[in-house]
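Write out this protein's structure.
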Amino acid sequence: MSLENCNKRTLMDYCPDIKVLDCTLRDGGLVNNFAFTDEFVRDLYEANIKAGVDYMEFGYKASKELFDTKDFGKWKFCDEKDIRAIVGENKSPLKISVMADVGRCDYKKDILPRKDSVVDLVRVATYIHQIPTAVEMIEHIKKKGYEVTVNIMAVSKVNSDDLDAGLQILAKSSVDAIYLVDSFGSFYPEQITKFSQKYVEIAEAAGKIVGIHAHNNQQLAFANTIEACRMGVSLLDATVNGMGRGAGNCFLEALLSFLKNPKYDEVPMIRFVEKHMLKLKEEGAVWGYDIPYMLTGIFNSHPSTAIRFIKDKRTDYTNLMHELMDME
């Protein structure tokens, strides 16, 4: 991962440091318990290559001691043999990524040395109180030879002093990039501007870059990703057709059409939507903007409340609003 100073870009700028990461299998896997067919995964891999995407995240490196393999598809665990069954030796420019959650991953056992793996990037996900453990994971995984990024989750619930302290600790670590994550889809572009400035200032002083992972509860994931990019954030997450838990994420096809790097091409992703995403929805997979998710975004609340509301086929939105107000 390279660091180039492209702060405060205009919407017409071409900045070669911008990288796009497709996390459809990982965030989208939360919609269907990672029950993707091999054809789906292989076609997505090939579409990413054709579209010029920089990284493709295959899923989680979750602990099989904590999660029953019978309850999830294989991309909850991302065994090396399963990834290689799709990509072989991955003789392409596309880099392979997996995510490791603090406290939910046997990272010392399940993450192989880089020389034995086709994975390029491990993304560590942490809550603010877990940062000391996250740093231990980062250092261990870096020593194994990987690129490593870190996602600080639920920062909309973190007070400013704790966030500043956490960012400074991570800046002193060996991590390559620090992610600004809008876990609940509660941020507006003006807030993204301020958070991006904070993250970029701290990260760049330590020779690191910043990423953005946005959720679409208030239909702002694309807008917030663009705003973060404008402010110097250079690692951009998105999913095909916005597939992700609850309201989903920034639409990958929209992001590719927006970016000015001529290597990006949204057409392979649009074709993939035609072939696979419409079928997924017809088969009952549900994600995307809806009023319950909008309400959890407005009230800066975890989407699990809205997910239960929708599964129960409730439509009493006003009552949900009052329930969320009472939780506040």
